[in-house]
């Protein structure tokens, strides 16, 4: 057994087939994930469970672990709890009918809107055309269907914004600007693009980067992007670009030299301990701090770093010798105009020292400094972007086993399926049941591997945790047999679809009153992809 093959696999993801695809995060590839834990280890996605307690009235998809991961979701939660501005945005490629997998994302957008967020839903028509080769007339039709379902499920278009990429001029200007900070080598390494990749596909990538930052165009604010984990490369790239666009970089420093991020806690610890070693604790010297740090018991100081990091920090302190060790905030001018640099200096309160490319400020805290840098940037033609956050949901298993795919009708339930069709599809779904009723009573069913149980957990039981738990417990306890269980699920699905279709009809009028062009003829031929 190797390290990456643990003895016991815990699967609550509805039993993606054993040995399915390796984990690869490819936005345009196959979207199965065989081992969600690898996403934490290899890609640095954080576990949602760790922030669940901080979420005010969490959505059932969060409570049930369907939303399993996140990147930097805390700033959004803080804003939510403090009544500050925040936003939610996600996008849909109109390549086919919206189905129950997309409903997860619709629900996530709507929930954040209900928690007070500025909400955005967009149609990725440029991506559908350039990366998937979908002709414009089909795109128009599908776009309408996505928007109708989003509204029918509760999106409030008066409060939020819906747009299609190709029609949004501000978006395209932002995309162009962001493209100035990205280059082809990155496209190659992030997305595997090569000399054959059509240029419009690349344009659709900068467009998506712009989508992700679009909610911050008027005002920087924490923004969450709910998506499947296949979109994580986009999220990481957008976070990077957000930072590259910034005028200033704000860091904490202790003397004239620069510290690496890993060294900073060490020097901070040395500063905290100054009473122990400094001849004059009001003015500890870097050299004195170096001596202390060289033999300090770091475990006791609560800092965990490699020895090489300690060595380099000691060396920097030694070199600074008699220079006082004194905490400060350092503002680097990354790409600020002279005017913005001057304005920043002007606005810093208290003691400050100015250098060629940076400013040291002695009387401001980090948060205050961040805010100031953002404000000055915004007043001088910059955006002041906050790196966007994301949350990730599990992919639903197809009703026929394997992955749920838009191109295999029996594998999913379309939000446009007739109620009776939905009923039938559930009735013929595969289950996690045993071969015989007798065996089922004895061993219990395998709810964790059952697409029908997933339907209950992801959709049918909605907010009713008790019902979800009842189905699960009865199944694994052998009290529930698949025939009746599917009949119940199928009936609920039929009711859901009936209700959804009614609401879609009501949404028609709402959609038509919005200023979204879903009809204009666009000329062209499907892109080479
Ligand atoms: N690329 C996404 C998809 O394949 C669609 C998309 C476009 C998107 N822009 C976005 C998703 C912005 C989230 C945020 O479905
Ligand atoms: Fe799935 Fe229901 Fe059968 Fe359990 S009883 S395996 S949940 S269909």
Automatic annotation (TrEMBL):
Highest taxon of the lineage: Archaea
Catalytic activity, as annotated: tRNA(Trp) + L-tryptophan + ATP = L-tryptophyl-tRNA(Trp) + AMP + diphosphate + H(+)
Region Disordered, annotated ranges: 1-24
InterPro entries: aa-tRNA-synth_Ic, Rossmann-like_a/b/a_fold, Trp-tRNA-ligase, Tryptophan-tRNA-ligase_arc
GO cellular component: cytoplasm
Motif ('HIGH' region): 94-102
Main location: cytoplasm
Compartment(s) where it occurs, according to its Swiss-Prot or TrEMBL record: Cytoplasm
Alphabetical UniProt keywords: Aminoacyl-tRNA synthetase, ATP-binding, Cytoplasm, Ligase, Nucleotide-binding, Protein biosynthesis
Enzyme class: ligase
Alphabetized GO MF terms: ATP binding; tryptophan-tRNA ligase activity
Gene Ontology biological process terms in this record: tryptophanyl-tRNA aminoacylation
Keyword Cell cycle in record: no
UniProt keyword Oxidoreductase, yes or no: no
HAMAP family: Trp_tRNA_synth_A
Stated role: Catalyzes the attachment of tryptophan to tRNA(Trp).
Similarity remark: Belongs to the class-I aminoacyl-tRNA synthetase family.
Name this polypeptide is given: Tryptophan--tRNA ligase
Organism per entry: Haloferax massiliensis
Gene giving rise to this polypeptide: trpS
């Amino acid at each position: 057994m190797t390290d990456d093959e643990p003895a016991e696999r815990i699967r609550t993801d509805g039993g993606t087939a054993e040995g399915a695809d390796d984990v690869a995060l490819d936005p345009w590839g196959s979207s199965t994930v065989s081992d969600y834990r690898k996403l934490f280890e290899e890609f640095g996605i954080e576990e949602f469970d760790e922030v669940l307690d901080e979420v005010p009235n969490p959505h059932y998809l969060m409570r049930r672990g369907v939303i399993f991961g996140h990147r930097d979701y805390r700033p959004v939660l803080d804003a939510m709890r403090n009544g500050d501005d925040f936003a939610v945005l996600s996008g849909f490629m109109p390549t086919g009918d919206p189905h129950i997998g997309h409903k997860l994302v619709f629900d996530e957008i709507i929930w954040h809107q209900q928690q007070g967020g500025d909400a955005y839903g967009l149609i990725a028509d440029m991506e559908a055309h350039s990366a998937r080769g979908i002709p414009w007339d089909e795109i128009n039709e599908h776009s309408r269907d996505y928007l109708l379902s989003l509204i029918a499920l509760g999106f409030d278009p008066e409060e939020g914004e819906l747009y299609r990429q190709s029609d949004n001029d501000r978006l395209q200007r932002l995309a162009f600007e962001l493209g100035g900070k990205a280059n082809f080598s990155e496209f190659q390494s992030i997305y595997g693009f090569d000399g054959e990749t059509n240029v419009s596909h690349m344009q659709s990538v900068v467009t998506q980067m712009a989508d992700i930052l679009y909610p911050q165009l008027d005002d920087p604010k924490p923004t969450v992007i709910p998506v499947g984990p296949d979109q994580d490369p986009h999220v990481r790239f957008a976070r990077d670009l957000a930072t590259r666009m910034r005028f200033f970089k704000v860091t904490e420093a202790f003397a004239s030299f620069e510290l690496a991020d890993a060294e900073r806690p060490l020097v901070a610890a040395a500063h905290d301990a100054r009473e122990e070693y400094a001849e004059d604790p009001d003015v500890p010297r870097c050299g004195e701090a170096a001596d202390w740090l060289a033999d300090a018991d770091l475990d006791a100081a609560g800092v965990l770093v490699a020895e090489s990091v300690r060595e380099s920090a000691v060396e920097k302190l030694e070199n600074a010798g008699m220079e006082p060790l004194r905490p400060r905030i350092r503002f680097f001018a990354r790409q600020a105009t002279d005017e913005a640099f001057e304005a920043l200096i002007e606005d810093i309160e208290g003691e400050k020292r100015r250098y060629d490319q940076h400013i040291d400020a002695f009387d401001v805290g980090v948060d205050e400094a961040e805010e100031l840098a953002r404000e000055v940037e915004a007043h001088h033609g910059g955006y002041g972007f906050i790196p966007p956050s994301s949350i990730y949901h599990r992919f639903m298993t197809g009703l026929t086993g394997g992955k749920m795919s838009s191109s295999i009708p029996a594998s999913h339930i379309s939000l446009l399926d007739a109620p009776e069709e939905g009923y039938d599809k559930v009735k013929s779904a595969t289950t996690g049941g045993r071969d015989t009723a007798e065996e089922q009573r004895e061993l219990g069913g395998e709810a964790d591997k059952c697409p029908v149980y997933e339907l209950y957990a992801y959709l049918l039981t909605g907010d009713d945790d008790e019902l979800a738990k009842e189905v699960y417990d009865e199944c694994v306890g052998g009290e529930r047999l698949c025939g009746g269980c599917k009949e119940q699920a199928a009936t609920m699905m039929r009711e859901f679809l009936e209700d959804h279709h009614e609401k879609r009809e009501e949404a028609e009028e709402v959609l038509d009153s919005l200023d979204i062009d879903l009809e204009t003829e666009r000329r062209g031929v499907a892109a080479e992809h």
